[in-house]
Design goal:
heterodimer; A: about 270 residues; mainly alpha; MetI-like fold; 11 helices; B: about 350 residues; alpha/beta; D-Maltodextrin-Binding Protein, domain 2; 2 domains; three-stranded parallel sheet; 13 helices; 11 strands; globular
Chain lengths: ~270, ~350
Amino acid sequence: MKRLKGLPSKLWLILLLAFMYLPIIYVVIFSFNDSRSLTHFTGFSLEWYEKMLDNSTMMESIYYTVVIAIIATVVSTIVGTITAIGLSKSRRAMKETITQINNLPMLNPEIVTAIGLMLFFTALNMRLGFMTLLLAHIIFCIPYVILSIMPKLRQLDDNLFEAALDLGCTPFKALYKVIIPQIKPGIISGALIAFTMSFDDFVISYFVTGPGINNISTMVYTSVKRINPSVNALSTIIVLAITIILVIVNIVPMIKERKKKKNEELA
Amino acid sequence: MKNLLKIALVITFALALVGCGGDNTSSGDNEYGCEVLNVYNWGEYIGEDVISNFEDEFNVSVNYSLFDSNEAMYTKVLGGTHYDVLVPSDYMIERMIDEDLLQPIDKSVITNMDLLYEGTLNKPYDMDNTYSIPYFWGNVGIVYDKTIVDPSDVESQEWEVLRNPKYAGQIYMYDSERDSFMVALKALGYSMNTTNEDEINEAYDWLVELQQTMAPAYATDEAIDGLIYGEKAMGVMYSGDAAYILSENENMAFYAPEKMGTNYWNDAMVIPKNADCPGLANEFINYILTYEASYDNTITVGYASANAEVFEEMGAAGGYYEGNPAFTPRAQNEKDEVFSNNEEVRELISELWIKVKNS
């Protein structure tokens, strides 16, 4: 492939990045606004960060978002991985059917899932609240985990498992010593998707949550009546946190690699 | 690595358990039989310390949740979520009474009833306040820039000033079918609760003409910022929001059409039938009526209080909102009306409203 050179292609790239990042930068700038306005910058202040920290609803919503996202990720990753491995060992017809059924919730409009879940929980006489919110998040995360693990399992050599047994593994040992390490990239990407899905879900959360339990999206939505820049402050902190995590995720393996190379050179 | 995973798991489950703790209504042993009160209110609609003061005084905890529209609130309640106190608007209260979703207020607990401003009581949506106790109230009117718009134009033409070609391209129209049709119907001299289709169609034509000749910007809360910074010269506004605009930009004035009349609205506290803690809910409502709580609410939010003393003090000489006409709406103008609930008309005008905006 030819390398992209020249002004037009660079300009294109800059435009593309600007289009993606300008709205975020706009939000960040107005989080430092001196007045309540979201369209006129009148001066620099940290007032809205202070307001944000004082706002207990806001702080609680961060707590709930993170807790729900972590639990939903852990549970849906475990359930999804087990299901995917089980599916890969079952008959073809079964596998096809279940895969199709698994795809359905992802294609289904979220609002339908949301209202369905709300009515379902109510019909079961469950109190809408933390538990229903968590269950709903686990439910809508599982299909994504399965979807991202299935291709990895398909690539896997069927004989690997048997070879492991031949070499003296118990089935369970073979599972976590051979199969899981082989499909690890799929599990990790599934978990990441689950985490992001849960972290920024609005529609489903809005319907299945109960009194006093808000995640960040539902909290922001319900306070739009008279939006104030503390929402910007909150967004800025989230953007910052995500950037730091991304940097760490990308840099740590690089450092590890370099260390490895150095060690090899020494040896 | 394995240990790390284990620790993470333990932590998350521990957190989950903590989270669950606060989520159910625990049956307490105080006189109300419960220690948690679930309040469901509009976003940005309460004083900064009202909730915490109530919690301290009654030694209970309050789960405070927010909604952004009457309809969203209604869906949640119908969906089976248990709240103890709601703060819907007039027409929604009427609908909930009709559908038997509310329980009567226990007037023996509401000892502060006589603190209420008389103009907010016994309105058609709940004739003798059996189910509802007023929270905030106000009018809808026109906010305009005195330096651009001639006050005598506004006062003589009232709603028709929105169609005055002099000010084309300078107005914000309220982006909701209910409020826009209210403006049009009032301008034409009809009741805003009309069920007469001819009158509604006339209002539709009125709005289409406005759309075609005036090129208005349709906005709701975005208009607040726009008017504070003078991006447009005029806009249809709720009195509470108008009060805030006037306090930020001294060039702005507020006028609620008197001869044509306008919307008199009321948001009031109600207790749904499925409330877990009606006893405490009544206490909460009573607490909101006190001078301290009402004062805190009004100062923070800018809407007119239902507490008579607070309302009069704020607008009077030396008060926080002295000389701010938007803060002191009127409750007794013959031409003003309260919205009533009529689903058929609502559907019709929401269809027409889409057509207006696309015309």
